[in-house]
Structure formats: structure tokens, C-alpha cells
């Protein structure tokens, strides 16, 4: 195992986050704060409690998930896309590193950034709403699992994309709608039965629900199912990454 | 000398159907400077890219110091440093960080002293804290060399190392390459500048349309194919070569003002004495004479043209 290489990639990617501190950390914190102000304080004050939790507090886990997923994807996809775009990928391809080490470096760094960011947003949230975390360990488990899974997904997008637009397309057209329709701002149980069934095909529902459970012990779906679905998606992303390196897809000719 | 890189029956056909390499067999000897010459699109970069692991071969195999580049890629790649043709750099990183990154990537523990040595050798030391994008083109080229040398490779690939580099800097780079060779590093360079190959290389390979046309010691190549010409500047114009001189295969140049005699420097008799005597007999006088040896460039153009 080439640990020096993993460390080099990881530190290189983390250094990029420091250089771009503004968009990496401040921007998501700001936009999440705006959500709290608008949905939590302004509109939320007129919405009744959901399952005994005030609306402002209810949306916190969903908002963290929204940022976590979007940032994991953008961090990881940009991290691997940029060397492909600039041509510096030659060095990675000619280095004595295994695919596993490359993924560990890039995905590890992207997931770390996302988790740190998720925690910062969580801290920000406490400024707006009273929070309680019933299962801190499970909360961290969901946080890390989601960050890793979506960083892997972002890595796949970064390999697949052949232009900067494509980097934006998936987060914008798929992840954002899925998150908004995934119970970030409401309980799935508030939906009519038909739409509730449709919603259950949305993988984000399971992440948000599981994550919210770790805070308030309320959930739309069983926690076990949530974890199983998250692991399932993680497995899918791993398989995609494995296939990419096996075939050299978009990396080698 | 033993071979350090062994390429056998290597072929590459791209997805477009373009066959970039056709069954290449080549051995690079330990410690030599090998120059790969060829026109644009001949397959030079493809060959290097396969050896370095950037492009997959369609057929054939390569071993580096006995390590197969596919099944034992870690050992093979650890030995190699690659300086690509394009100036591809991390624009936002500092010189120091990007060179240190390369060392880590190739599995070596951090060694600031070595990075310092490399940066100083390439006159980049005073730029170590500068962002890469602030460097000039020549500095970026040297930075790529520094990155390739960061992990102390035993084999260095230089793909068009002096393209777009001014004359003074080019000479400086040759010095660096020679110093490396003296320290035991095997160097493979591709180039358009024949002058560069002539100056630097121990052996020369010529590649055209994906085929290795010849591999030869530089000196032997120059001797074997090297022709020498004697140019005589005549007193009086000649319209045709006189009958008495027909045996020499002379050419008339400069609108009849010159007679050009081509001879082989390795033949037992060059024929110069005979020619001068016969010219004197024929009453042809000359005011000046000079000789020219064909350069590697002429040889190269000949070789490539002859196989077309």
C-alpha cells in the first residue's frame, strides 16, 4: 500500500479547500442560515409542530443532509475532474498507485470536507433553533456514510463529465429535486397515500429520515431500512468506481 | 550494457481505428541517453505513454528492470520519472508543494533536502514559494522536470523537453540531462530538434508511422549514413561535366560555378586526389574549396523519405 501517495493526494485536496475557503465553507453556511431564517423563523413560526418537534428544529437534519450531499458531490467531482481537464492527471496515471489508493485520497478528502461542513452547519443551526441529538453516534454514522457515499458518487460524475456543465447537471437536476422531495421540509407522512408511495422510491428519503431519527427519534421509515438503503447506494457507487478503473473508462485510452 | 526497458511486439490501435504503433521491439540500455526521433504523429508520445502507464497497449508487453508494466506496475512505475510534452501544471499550487506532492505520489517519504537539491539544480529555488501560474513557460518546463526528478527515478522520460525553450535555456537543460546521466539515470528523450539528438544521444531510434525504422548508435549512424561533400568553386562556368570526369558522379551547382563531389569518408580511397588531378588535366581551375558533412537531420530526412 502506497500510503505516501494517499497522504499526498489527501493533503493536496485539503489544501485546495483552504485556498477556496470562501466557497468551500462560508457560502454553504450562509445559504443554510438563510434557509433557517426563511423557513425556520419566518414561515416556521406559523407552522404547527411535527411529531412534537418545532418546524425550525424539524428541518435541521434535512438541511444538513442537503448541504452534505451537494458538497460531497461537488468536492469530489471537481477534485478528479480538474486534473483531467488541466492534463495533470498524467502524473496520477503514471504513479505507482492502485485505484483503491487514488479513491481513498480523493474521496477521503472530499468526505472529510463535507463532514466538517456538516458539523459547522449543525453548529450554525444551534444559533437559530434549540437542538437535541438523541443518538450522537448514529448521527455521526449517518453523516459519515452519506458523505462517503455521495463523495464516491461525485467521483464517478467527475470521471464521467466531459465538460464543466456536466459537473453541474447531476447535482442541479437530480440531487436538488430529490432532496426537496425527500422530506427535508416536511414529513413524508403528511403526503397523500399515492405520493407517499412514490416518495419511497426516492433514496434521499431514507437518508433524511434516518438522520432525523438520530436527532429526534422520529422517522418516516424504519431506521434499519434507512441504513440498508444507504449501504446499498454506497455499494452501487463502489461498483461503479471499480468498473471505471477496471476498464480505464475516460481515464486511459 | 544490460537493457533496462524491454519493449516487445508492442502495438496500439486507438478506438478510432488509428494504428499508432505497429509491433515495436526496442531495448533501452541501462545508463544511456536514447533519443527517439520522428515526425509529428509518428507514435513517439504513444510509445512513452504506454511505458509510463498512461495509455493501455493493444498488444505486446513492456518490462522495466524486469518488472512487467501491467502485472507489476508499482515496481515498474516507481523507477520512472516522466516529463510530458504539454505544460500541464497545477496553476494554483506553489512550486514547493507541487514538487513535494509528486514525491509523495510516487511513494517516497518526504525529503526536503532532496526537493531543495532538485529545485536548485533547475534554477527554481528562488521560485519555491511562487504559485505555478506566475512562472514563465521555460520555468514551467523546468518545474515539470523537477516533479519528475522529485522521487529519484532511475529512468527519465523527456517528451520534447526543449520545445519552446530558448537557446540558452536549452543548453542549460542539456547540462542537467548530462549530469543526470553521469549519476546513472537512463534517459529517453523524444525530440524534433535533430541538433538535440546529435548533441546528447548515445543511441538514436527513428520512428515513423508507428514503426521503428532504425535503432543505431549515434556515431555509427552518422558514419554509416554520413556522406561528405567536396564543393569546388570554379574559375569558369561549366555547362556540363566533362567526359573525362564522368566516373566521379559529379554534380554541377550554383549555375555552373560549382562542382560538387560526394564521397564516403570510410572508403579506402575517397577519390579526391584522383579528381583533383583529372580536373587539372582537363584544365578546370578552381578558386576555393570546402567540405560539408551531412547532419543527422539530413540522414533523418533521408531515412523517413526512403520508407514512405
List keywords for this structure.
heterodimer; A: about 250 residues; mainly alpha; 10 helices; about 75% helix; globular; B: about 300 residues; alpha/beta; six-stranded mixed sheet; four-stranded antiparallel sheet; about 35% helix
Number of strands of chain A: 0
User: How is the main sheet of chain A built?
Assistant: none
Percentage beta strand of chain B: 25-35%
Portion of residues in beta strands of chain A equals: under 5%
Strand order of the largest sheet of chain B: 6-7-8-3-9-10
Parts with pLDDT < 50 across at least 5 consecutive residues of chain A: none
Helix content of chain A: over 70%
Number of strands of chain B: 14
Q: Which whole number gives the mean pLDDT of chain B?
A: 87
Number of helices of chain B: 10
Derived from helix and strand composition plus strand pairing, the structural class of chain A reads mainly alpha
Mean pLDDT over the full residue set of chain A: 88
Query: Topology as H/E string of chain A?
Result: HHHHHHHHHH
Q: How would you describe the shape of chain A?
A: globular
Taking all Cα atoms into account, the compactness measure Rg of chain B is 24 Å
Q: Largest interface, per-chain counts?
A: A-B, 26 and 35 residues
Amino acid at each position: 500500500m502506497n500510503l505516501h501517495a494517499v497522504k499526498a493526494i489527501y493533503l493536496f485536496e485539503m489544501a485546495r479547500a483552504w485556498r477556496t475557503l470562501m466557497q468551500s465553507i462560508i457560502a454553504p453556511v450562509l445559504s443554510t442560515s438563510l434557509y433557517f431564517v426563511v423557513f425556520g423563523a419566518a414561515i416556521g413560526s406559523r407552522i404547527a409542530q411535527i411529531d412534537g418537534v418545532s418546524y425550525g428544529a424539524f428541518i435541521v437534519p434535512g438541511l444538513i443532509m442537503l448541504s452534505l450531499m451537494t458538497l460531497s458531490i461537488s468536492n469530489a467531482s471537481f477534485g478528479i475532474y480538474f486534473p483531467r481537464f488541466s492534463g495533470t492527471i498524467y502524473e496520477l496515471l503514471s504513479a505507482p498507485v492502485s485505484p483503491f489508493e487514488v479513491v481513498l485520497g480523493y474521496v477521503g478528502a472530499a468526505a472529510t470536507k463535507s463532514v466538517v461542513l456538516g458539523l459547522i452547519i449543525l453548529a450554525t443551526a444551534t444559533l437559530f433553533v434549540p437542538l437535541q441529538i438523541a443518538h450522537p453516534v448514529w448521527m455521526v454514522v449517518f453523516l459519515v456514510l452519506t458523505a462517503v457515499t455521495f463523495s464516491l458518487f461525485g467521483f464517478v460524475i467527475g470521471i464521467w463529465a466531459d465538460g464543466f456543465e456536466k459537473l453541474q447537471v447531476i447535482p442541479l437536476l437530480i440531487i436538488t429535486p430529490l432532496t426537496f422531495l425527500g422530506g427535508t421540509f416536511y414529513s413524508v407522512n403528511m403526503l397523500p397515500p399515492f405520493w407517499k408511495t412514490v416518495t419511497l422510491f426516492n433514496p434521499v428519503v431514507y437518508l433524511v429520515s434516518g438522520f432525523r431519527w438520530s436527532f429526534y427519534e422520529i422517522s418516516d421509515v424504519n431506521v434499519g431500512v434507512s441504513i440498508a438503503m444507504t449501504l446499498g447506494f454506497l455499494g452501487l457507487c463502489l461498483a461503479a468506481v471499480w468498473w471505471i478503473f477496471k476498464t480505464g473508462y475516460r481515464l486511459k485510452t | 550494457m544490460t537493457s533496462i526497458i524491454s519493449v516487445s511486439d508492442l502495438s496500439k490501435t486507438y478506438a478510432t481505428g488509428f494504428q499508432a504503433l505497429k509491433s515495436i521491439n526496442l531495448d533501452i540500455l541501462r545508463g544511456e541517453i536514447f533519443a527517439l526521433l520522428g515526425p509529428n504523429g509518428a507514435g513517439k508520445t504513444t510509445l512513452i505513454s504506454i511505458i509510463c502507464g498512461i495509455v493501455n497497449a493493444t498488444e505486446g508487453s513492456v518490462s522495466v528492470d524486469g518488472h512487467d508494466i501491467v502485472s507489476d506496475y508499482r515496481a515498474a512505475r516507481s523507477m520512472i520519472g516522466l516529463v510530458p510534452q504539454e505544460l500541464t501544471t497545477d496553476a494554483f499550487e506553489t512550486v514547493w508543494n507541487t514538487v513535494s506532492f509528486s514525491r509523495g505520489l510516487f511513494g517516497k517519504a518526504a525529503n526536503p533536502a532532496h526537493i531543495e537539491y532538485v529545485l536548485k539544480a533547475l534554477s527554481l529555488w528562488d521560485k519555491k514559494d511562487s504559485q505555478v501560474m506566475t512562472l514563465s513557460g521555460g520555468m514551467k518546463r523546468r518545474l515539470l522536470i523537477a516533479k519528475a526528478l522529485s522521487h529519484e527515478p532511475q529512468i527519465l522520460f523527456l517528451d520534447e523537453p526543449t520545445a519552446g525553450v530558448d537557446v540558452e535555456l536549452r543548453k542549460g537543460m542539456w547540462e542537467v540531462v548530462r549530469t543526470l546521466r553521469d549519476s546513472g539515470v537512463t534517459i529517453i528523450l523524444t525530440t524534433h530538434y535533430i541538433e538535440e539528438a546529435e548533441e546528447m544521444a548515445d543511441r538514436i531510434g527513428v520512428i515513423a508511422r508507428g514503426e521503428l525504422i532504425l535503432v543505431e548508435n549515434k556515431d555509427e549512424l552518422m558514419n554509416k549514413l554520413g556522406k561528405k561533400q567536396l564543393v569546388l568553386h570554379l574559375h569558369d562556368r561549366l555547362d556540363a561535366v566533362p567526359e573525362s570526369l564522368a566516373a566521379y558522379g559529379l554534380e554541377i551547382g550554383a549555375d555552373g560555378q560549382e562542382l560538387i563531389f560526394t564521397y564516403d569518408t570510410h572508403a579506402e580511397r575517397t577519390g579526391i586526389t584522383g579528381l583533383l588531378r583529372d580536373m587539372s588535366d582537363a584544365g578546370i581551375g578552381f578558386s576555393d574549396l570546402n567540405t560539408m558533412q551531412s547532419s543527422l537531420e539530413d540522414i533523418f530526412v533521408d531515412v523517413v523519405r526512403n520508407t514512405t
